[in-house]
Amino acid sequence: MMQSRRIDPLLLRAQEHEDAIARDLAERQRTLALHEQRLEELRRYADEYGNNGSAATSPAQLANHRAFLERLQSAVEQQRRTVDSSRRTVDVERARLLLASRDKQVLEQLAASYRAQERQVDERRSQREMDDLGARRMRALSIAANEGNH
After folding, report:
1. CA dist., res. 73 & res. 34, Å (int)
2. pLDDT tens column, 3-38
3. Is the pTM of this model over 0.90?
4. What residues have CB less than 8 Å from 73, skipping those under 6 apart?
């Protein structure tokens, strides 16, 4: 079996691996976008709620307002940590995709090199066959010419 044919299953596996990682990356990016959207919504809500602090009429309402605002700020901070973690995950997946792509590219280059070598071997074989055929014809002509002279 030719070397280029032997590498084809490896190329197929490398492509499948790269595709799987690309799907994982796309999913991680969607998750990150959702987390970022939630963070923005929480920040907006916290800002709006924080700007409504003057509506409190009693000390109890003011205390409740501050406690809720603190919980909102805590939720914003937790969501920010979630976004940061999600970004790191996306970065890891992006690096994995880059490595998988490089691995596949190396295999593609190796397969191309094998195919080029196989083409050279085929071309040399074809040239040798043409040379042999030409030499046989020349011998046949030479023999025919010698028989014609006798």
Report:
1. 19
2. 778 899 999 999 999 999 999 999 999 999 999 999
3. no
4. 46
Tokens of 114: 């094998």
What Cα–Cα distance (Å) separates residue 30 from each residue in 80, 86, 138? Answer: 16, 10, 73
What phi, psi does 104 have (nearest 5°)?
Answer: -65, -40
Q: Determine which of 2-6, 23-27, 72-76, 137-141 has the lowest per-residue pLDDT on average.
A: 2-6
Count of C-beta atoms within a 10 Å radius of residue 97: 20
* Max CA pair span of the chain: 135
Using alpha carbons, list the distances in angstroms from residue 138 to 54, 67, 120.
Answer: 110, 105, 26
Backbone angles phi, psi at 57, to 5 degrees: -105, -20
**Angle of the 3-51 helix axis to the 59-149 helix axis, nearest 10:** 160
